[in-house]
C-alpha cells in the first residue's frame, strides 16, 4: 500500500510551520499508524534528514501521549481509539492523509507534531486530587461505596489526559477533561470534603490557561478514546452551581 | 568491596518496625533545608516525590515524558496484591511474603520481601483515601480477584486499568505538592549523568528535551525510579521510550548492577506481524483459563487452523503437564511455545506463534459467557490483528514484560553510591528471579509511599552533607562528559538507522539471551554485541542538532547505552550456570525439562561493578540467607 | 482562588448565564407565538390581547427585564465567541466533524451568526411594531395593532425578511433550546435524549408557526381595509 502524506513540519515553537508532502511506500495493513510513521522516519534518518517529531509512548492506548489529528479528526477515524491503536488497514491504497498537531492556544506546538500539554497538569495541580498525606489513611473498607457509584467514578476516571477533547472542540475547551476528574471525585465519598474548592479552582485554572468555553456540541465526546460522555460536563456545572451557592 | 545489605537484626516480623524506630529522624523544620532529586514519575517515583514533598523536603522531580502522568506504570492491567485477607481465605502478611519468595525462585532478599508484604496493606488504604476507584462488591466493600502463584484472592483491581488508576492517584498527590511548591516538576528532562561529590550522589545532569540545554541540578540525595530495561530486547511490552540510560549512567558512576539476567517473559502476547513492529501488546494471562494452546504436529504445516483435524494437533501443554495443563506458570508456558516454534511447528506468517483456541470453551459454556469474561481482550485482539478470535484461534507468542534485575540496593534502598537510592523496577530487590503477577504495582508504591520516606531521612540525618552547588567542578566534569557523548553521537554521520541497529540488538538478545540460554548462545551474544556496538559508533546516522527537540538524538543515546548494558546482561546470564525463575539455562534442567536451581553455588545476588566499556566488570556476591522460607524444587507435572 | 469569585465570569458561569437567559428568551418566544396566534381569530381578539398587554402597568418593568435579558445574552455570547476564537489562534488545515454521538450541526456551528442576525431583526421588529404607526381602533384608547400587522406584511420584502428571520430563529433554537439544559447542568440518561428531540420539535414548531402566521397575514392582507 502506498500513501501520500501531508505532515505539519514546524522547526520550533516560534517558527512558521507548513504541510510537507511525503510518500509512504510499502505500507503493510498490519502496521499501526505510528509504525507507519516510524518507517517514514527511519528512511529520513538514514538519509541524514531530520525525522518527523511526534509524541508516543505506551503504544497500547493508555498513556495518552500520542496526539495526531488525522484528516481533520483527532486520533483518526476509529471511535474510541488512540492513534497508536489505529491500524493502516483503515486506509486505502493511494489515499492522501493529512497529519497535524493538536491545535489550541493552551497547547503550543513545540516541534512538528508535538505540543505542550502541561496546562493539563496545572489544572490537576489546582485541585484534581484528594488532599490526604501518606500515612494517615483509615482502612480501605471503612467506607463502603456502592458498586454503581464506584463504577460511575471509574467511568470518569478512565480519562487518559491526551487532550483530544480540546483538539476536537471548536472552542479548544478543556471542559471534558476537567469534568472527568471533577466527576470522579465528586461521586466518591473521599472527594466530598474538597468538592467545592476543587471545582472552583480547576475551572479558574483552565480559564487562565486560555482554553475556550463549551458550546455543548459534544465533539469532545465523539473523539474521546475512552468515550467519556459530556454528561460529565453537566455534572461539573452542577458542582459549580452548588459551590457558588455555598460560597461565602 | 563488601556488600552490606544492612538487614536489621531481630525476628523477621519485627525487623521493619524496629528499624523504623532505630533510624534517625530529620526534624520538621530542618526538612525543607534538604533537597532531594527524584528521577522518574511512575508508581515508585511519583509516590516517592509526593510523600517526600508532604514531609516537607524540597523535592525536584524529573521525567522524560511530557507529563508525569504518562510513565509506563500506567499500562499495568491486572491488579495490585495486598495481604488484607478481606476474603477470609487464609491470607496473611506471612503468606504473601512466603508466596513472593517462593515465586521468585529463592533469589530475593527475605527481609525486603517481608517488609513489602507488611506495607502492602497500607498501600490499599492510602489509594482508597486518594479516591482510586477500585472495583467493589454490591455490599460496597473492596473486591478481590485471584492471580497466578497464589492460592488466595488478594489482588485489588480497577477494571483492566489498575496501573492507570494507581498512577493517577500518585500523580495527583504529586501535582498537589507541585501546587504547594514543595515539589518542583521538570518534565521532558532526561537524566544523562549522576554527579558525585566526595563519593556521594549530589546531583544529576539532565538534557532538556525541548531546548536541548544541558542542565545541572544539585541535591542532598538522589532517588532513581526509572523503571526496567525490557526494551534492550527491542520488542517488549514496555513503552517505546522506556530505557536503561539513567540506571546505566549511575552504574558507570559506581552503582553496582544486580542480577541483570533476571528478565520476565510473558507467554500471552500478540505476536510480531513484521519488521515494522514497534512494541508488543500483552493479553491478560487469564485467557489461559479457557483457551487451549496448540500447534500442528507436522512441521511447516501452513494450513489454516480450521483445516487441521483434531488428531493432527499437538496440545503440548496438556500433553506435557497433565496436572496443570494450560495453566502452567509464565516461564514454563513461554519456554514451551518457543520450543514448538524452534521445532518448525510455529503458526502464522512468521512461524513465531502458537494457537490459543477457544473453540472448545465456546462449545462448552457458550460464546456469551466467553464474551462476558474476555470481551474487551477479544476486541483488542481483533483491533490489532483483524482476526475474529471467536471464529479463529488467537495467535500468541511470549514477549519480554518485566525485568527483576536492577541497581543493587541495601535494605534502605540505597545503592553502593552513598545517597543514591533506587526504587521500583529500577532496583533489584524484591522479586528474585521471577515476579508474581500484581506484585510490580505493590513494590513500586511500597518503595515510594512507605519505605523511602523513612530511610532517606535516616541517610540525611546521619550523613555529613556540606553545601554543594552546581558550580562545583564535579558538575562541570559530568556536564562536559554528557556533552561529549552527544557530540560524538551527532558526529558519526553514518548510513544506518538507529532503529535498525536497535532491532538487530533486540534480535541478538532474543535469540541468544532470551527464553532459553546456553553457554554457546551466551558466548555468541558476547561476541556479537561488541561488534554491533562498534558498528553503531561507526555507522549510525543521527540527524538534527543538539540544541533543540531531537528525538533521533534521544533515541540514539538510549540505544548506545543498551549496546553497553546488553553485554552485562549476557555476561550475568553466562555466569549464572543454573536455571531459576525467568533465567533458564538449558544445561541446568531436570530430566523432565524443568528449571533446575543450583542453590549450593548460586544462592547469591550477582552485583556487577563497572570497569569500563568493553572491560569485564567485577562480580560481587551478596549471599542469600533463607531463615524463614526453605528453598524447594518447583514442579507442575 | 479568589474568595469572592465572579460567578458568571468563568467559562462555566458564562455558559450558565447564556443558558439561563436563553431559556428565558425561549419561554418568551413561546408566549409570543401563543399571542400572535390570536391574529387568526380576527382584529378584536388580537387588539384586545395587545391592549391588555400594553395597558398592564407591569409591562414597562417586564420590557426592561426582557431587554436586559437580551442584552446579557448577546453580550455574553459575543464575548464568549471572541474568547473562543482566541483559544485556537492557528486553525486546522483540514477539519472534519467528529461524527458519532456529537451534537454538532449546521445550527450549532452558526449560533453566533444566527444570533447576530436576530439582534438586527429584533431592532427592526420592535421599530416596525412597537414604535410603528399608531392607528386608533374603533374602541377608545385601543391601538389597532392588527392593522399594523397587515400593513407590514402586505410588502413582499417584509414577508421575505421575516420568513428568513424566522428560519434563523428556528436554526438558533434547533441547537439552543436543548443546549440550555446542558448549560444548566441538567442531564439525565433517560431524559436528555428526549430533551434533545423536543428542542428540535419546538424549534420547528415555533419557526414554522410564525411563518404560517406571516404567510396567512400576507395572503389575506388584500381583504383588510387599507
Task: Describe the 3D structure.
The complex is a heterotrimer of chains A (248), B (637) and C (226). Chain A is α+β, with helices and mostly antiparallel strands and 248 residues long. Chain A folds into two domains: 3-111, Beta-grasp domain (Ubiquitin-like (UB roll), Roll), CATH 3.10.20.30; 118-246, Fumarate Reductase Iron-sulfur Protein, Chain B, domain 2. In chain A, 35% of the residues lie in helices and 13% in strands. Chain A has helices at residues 33-46, 118-125, 147-157, 164-168, 175-187, 195-209, 219-223, 231-246; strands spanning 3-10, 17-24, 68-70, 73-74, 96-101, 109-111, 114-115. In chain A, a hairpin with a 2-residue loop joins strand 6 (109-111) and strand 7. Chain A starts with a strand and ends with a helix. By secondary structure, chain B is α+β, with helices and mostly antiparallel strands. Chain B has a five-stranded parallel β-sheet with strand order 5-2-1-9-17. Chain B has a five-stranded antiparallel β-sheet with strand order 11-15-14-12-13. A four-stranded antiparallel β-sheet of chain B has the order 16-10-18-19. In chain B, helix 3 packs parallel to helix 12 (440-462), helix 10 (359-365) runs antiparallel to helix 11 (367-385) and helix 14 runs antiparallel to helix 15. Chain B is globular and about 75 Å long. Chain C has a single domain, classed as 3 helical TM bundles of succinate and fumarate reductases, CATH 1.20.1300.10. The model of chain C has no long low-confidence stretch (mean pLDDT 93). Classes of the chains: A alpha+beta (248), B alpha+beta (637), C mainly alpha (226). Chains in contact: A-B, A-C. At the A-B interface, helix 1, helix 2 and helix 3 of A face helix 3, helix 5, helix 6, helix 11 and helix 12 of B.
Task: Based on the model shown, name its key terms.
heterotrimer, A: 248 residues, alpha+beta, Ubiquitin-like (UB roll), Fumarate Reductase Iron-sulfur Protein, Chain B, domain 2, 2 domains, 5-stranded mixed β-sheet, two-stranded antiparallel sheet, 7 strands, 35% helix, C: 226 residues, 3 helical TM bundles of succinate and fumarate reductases, 8 helices
Amino acid at each position: 500500500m502506498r500513501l501520500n502524506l501531508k505532515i505539519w513540519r514546524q522547526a520550533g515553537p516560534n517558527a512558521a510551520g507548513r504541510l510537507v508532502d511525503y510518500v509512504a511506500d510499502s505500507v503493510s495493513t498490519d502496521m499501526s499508524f505510528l509504525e507507519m510513521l516510524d518507517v517514514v522516519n527511519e528512511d529520513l534518518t538514514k538519509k541524514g534528514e531530520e525525522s518527523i517529531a511526534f509524541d508516543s509512548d505506551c503504544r497500547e492506548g493508555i498513556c495518552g501521549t500520542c496526539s495526531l489529528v488525522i484528516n481533520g479528526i483527532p486520533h483518526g477515524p476509529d471511535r474510541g481509539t488512540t492513534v497508536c491503536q489505529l491500524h493502516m488497514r483503515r486506509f486505502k491504497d493511494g489515499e492522501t492523509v493529512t497529519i497535524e498537531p493538536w491545535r489550541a492556544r493552551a497547547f503550543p506546538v513545540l516541534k512538528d507534531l508535538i505540543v505542550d500539554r502541561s496546562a493539563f497538569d496545572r489544572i490537576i495541580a489546582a485541585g484534581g486530587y484528594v488532599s490526604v498525606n501518606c500515612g494517615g489513611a483509615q482502612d480501605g473498607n471503612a467506607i463502603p461505596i456502592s458498586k454503581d457509584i464506584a463504577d460511575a467514578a471509574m467511568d470518569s476516571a478512565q480519562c487518559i489526559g491526551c487532550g483530544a477533547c480540546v483538539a476536537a472542540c471548536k472552542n479548544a475547551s478543556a471542559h471534558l477533561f476537567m469534568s472527568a476528574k471533577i466527576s470522579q471525585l465528586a461521586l466518591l465519598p473521599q472527594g466530598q470534603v474538597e468538592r467545592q474548592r476543587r471545582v472552583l479552582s480547576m475551572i479558574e485554572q483552565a480559564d487562565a490557561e486560555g482554553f475556550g468555553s463549551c458550546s455543548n456540541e459534544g465533539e469532545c465526546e465523539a473523539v474521546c478514546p475512552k468515550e467519556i460522555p459530556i454528561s460529565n460536563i453537566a455534572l461539573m456545572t452542577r458542582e459549580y452551581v452548588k459551590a457558588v451557592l455555598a460560597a461565602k | 568491596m563488601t556488600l552490606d545489605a544492612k538487614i536489621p537484626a531481630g525476628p523477621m516480623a519485627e525487623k521493619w518496625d524496629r528499624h523504623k524506630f532505630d533510624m534517625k529522624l530529620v526534624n520538621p523544620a530542618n526538612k525543607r533545608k534538604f533537597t532531594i532529586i527524584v528521577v522518574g514519575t511512575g508508581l515508585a517515583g511519583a509516590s516517592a516525590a509526593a510523600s517526600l514533598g508532604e514531609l516537607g523536603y524540597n523535592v525536584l522531580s524529573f521525567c522524560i515524558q511530557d507529563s508525569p502522568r504518562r510513565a509506563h506504570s500506567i499500562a499495568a492491567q491486572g491488579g495490585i496484591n495486598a495481604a488484607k485477607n478481606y476474603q477470609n481465605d487464609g491470607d496473611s502478611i506471612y503468606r504473601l511474603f512466603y508466596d513472593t519468595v517462593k515465586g521468585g525462585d529463592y533469589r530475593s532478599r527475605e527481609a525486603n520481601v517481608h517488609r513489602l508484604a507488611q506495607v502492602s496493606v497500607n498501600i490499599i488504604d492510602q489509594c482508597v483515601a486518594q479516591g482510586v476507584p477500585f472495583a467493589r462488591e454490591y455490599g460496597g466493600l473492596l473486591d478481590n480477584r485471584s492471580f497466578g502463584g497464589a492460592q488466595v484472592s488478594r489482588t485489588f483491581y480497577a477494571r483492566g486499568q489498575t496501573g492507570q488508576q494507581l498512577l493517577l492517584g500518585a500523580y495527583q498527590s504529586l501535582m498537589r505538592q507541585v501546587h504547594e511548591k514543595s515539589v518542583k516538576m521538570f518534565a521532558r528532562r532526561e537524566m544523562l549523568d549522576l554527579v558525585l561529590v566526595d563519593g556521594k550522589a549530589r546531583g544529576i545532569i539532565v538534557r532538556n528535551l525541548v531546548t536541548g540545554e544541558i542542565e545541572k541540578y544539585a541535591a542532598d540525595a538522589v532517588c532513581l525510579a526509572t523503571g526496567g530495561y525490557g526494551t534492550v530486547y527491542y520488542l517488549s511490552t514496555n513503552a517505546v521510550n522506556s530505557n536503561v540510560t539513567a540506571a546505566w549512567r549511575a552504574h558507570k558512576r559506581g552503582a553496582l548492577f544486580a542480577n541483570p539476567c533476571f528478565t520476565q517473559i510473558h507467554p500471552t502476547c500478540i505476536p510480531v506481524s513484521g519488521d515494522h513492529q514497534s512494541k508488543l501488546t500483552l493479553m491478560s494471562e487469564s485467557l489461559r483459563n479457557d483457551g487451549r494452546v496448540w500447534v500442528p504436529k507436522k512441521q511447516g504445516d501452513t494450513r489454516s487452523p480450521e483445516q487441521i483435524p483434531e488428531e493432527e494437533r499437538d496440545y503440548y501443554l496438556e500433553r506435557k503437564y497433565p496436572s496443570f495443563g494450560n495453566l502452567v506458570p509464565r516461564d514454563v508456558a513461554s519456554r514451551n511455545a518457543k520450543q514448538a516454534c524452534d521445532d518448525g511447528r510455529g503458526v502464522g506468517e512468521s512461524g513465531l506463534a502458537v494457537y490459543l483456541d477457544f473453540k472448545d470453551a465456546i462449545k462448552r459454556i457458550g460464546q456469551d459467557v466467553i464474551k462476558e469474561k474476555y470481551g474487551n481482550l477479544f476486541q483488542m485482539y481483533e483491533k490489532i490483528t483483524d482476526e475474529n478470535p471467536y471464529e479463529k484461534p488467537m495467535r500468541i507468542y511470549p514477549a519480554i514484560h518485566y525485568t527483576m534485575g536492577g541497581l543493587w540496593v541495601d535494605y534502605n534502598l540505597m545503592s553502593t553510591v552513598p545517597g543514591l537510592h533506587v526504587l521500583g523496577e529500577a532496583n533489584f530487590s524484591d522479586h528474585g528471579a521471577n515476579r508474581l503477577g500484581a506484585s510490580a504495582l505493590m513494590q513500586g508504591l511500597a518503595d515510594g509511599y512507605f519505605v523511602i520516606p523513612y530511610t532517606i531521612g535516616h541517610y540525611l540525618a546521619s550523613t555529613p552533607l556540606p553545601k554543594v552547588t552546581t558550580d562545583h567542578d564535579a558538575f562541570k566534569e559530568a556536564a562536559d562528559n554528557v556533552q561529549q557523548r552527544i557530540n560524538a553521537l551527532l558526529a558519526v554521520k553514518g548510513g544506518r538507522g538507529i532503529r535498525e541497529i536497535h532491532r538487530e540488538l533486540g534480535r541478538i538478545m532474543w535469540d541468544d539471551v532470551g527464553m532459553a540460554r546456553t553457554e554457546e548462545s551466551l558466548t555468541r551474544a558476547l561476541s556479537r554485541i561488541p561488534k554491533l556496538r562498534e558498528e553503531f559508533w561507526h555507522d549510525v546516522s543521527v540527524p538534527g542538532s543538539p540544541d533543540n527537540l531531537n528525538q533521533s538524538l534521544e533515541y540514539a543515546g538510549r540505544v548506545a547505552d543498551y549496546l553497553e548494558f546488553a553485554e552485562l546482561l549476557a555476561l550475568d546470564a553466562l555466569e549464572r550456570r543454573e536455571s531459576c525463575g525467568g533465567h533458564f539455562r538449558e544445561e541446568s534442567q531436570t530430566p523432565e525439562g524443568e528449571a533446575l536451581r543450583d542453590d549450593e553455588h548460586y544462592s547469591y545476588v550477582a552485583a556487577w561493578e563497572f570497569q569500563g566499556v568493553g572491560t569485564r566488570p567485577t562480580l560481587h556476591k551478596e549471599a542469600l540467607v533463607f531463615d524463614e522460607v526453605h528453598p524447594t524444587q518447583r514442579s507442575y507435572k | 482562588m479568589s474568595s469572592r469569585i465572579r460567578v458568571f465570569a468563568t467559562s462555566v458561569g458564562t455558559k450558565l448565564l447564556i443558558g439561563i437567559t436563553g431559556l428565558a428568551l425561549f419561554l418568551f418566544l413561546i408566549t409570543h407565538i401563543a399571542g400572535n396566534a390570536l391574529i387568526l381569530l380576527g382584529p378584536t381578539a388580537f387588539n384586545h390581547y395587545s391592549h391588555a398587554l400594553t395597558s398592564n402597568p407591569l409591562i414597562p418593568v417586564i420590557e426592561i427585564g426582557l431587554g436586559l435579558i437580551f442584552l446579557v445574552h448577546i453580550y455574553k455570547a459575543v464575548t464568549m465567541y471572541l474568547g473562543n476564537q482566541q483559544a485556537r489562534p492557528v486553525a486546522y488545515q483540514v477539519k472534519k466533524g467528529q461524527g458519532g454521538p456529537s451534537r454538532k450541526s449546521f445550527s450549532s456551528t452558526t449560533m453566533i451568526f444566527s444570533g447576530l442576525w436576530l439582534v438586527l431583526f429584533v431592532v427592526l421588529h420592535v421599530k416596525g411594531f412597537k414604535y410603528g404607526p399608531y392607528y386608533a381602533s374603533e374602541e377608545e384608547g385601543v391601538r389597532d395593532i392588527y392593522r399594523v400587522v397587515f400593513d407590514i406584511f402586505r410588502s413582499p420584502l417584509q414577508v421575505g425578511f421575516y420568513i428568513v428571520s424566522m428560519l434563523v430563529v428556528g436554526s438558533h433554537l434547533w441547537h439552543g433550546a436543548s443546549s440550555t439544559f446542558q448549560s444548566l447542568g441538567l442531564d439525565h440518561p433517560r431524559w436528555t435524549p428526549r430533551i434533545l428531540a423536543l428542542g428540535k420539535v419546538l424549534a420547528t414548531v415555533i419557526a414554522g408557526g410564525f411563518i404560517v402566521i406571516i404567510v396567512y397575514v400576507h395572503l389575506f392582507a388584500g381583504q383588510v381595509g387599507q
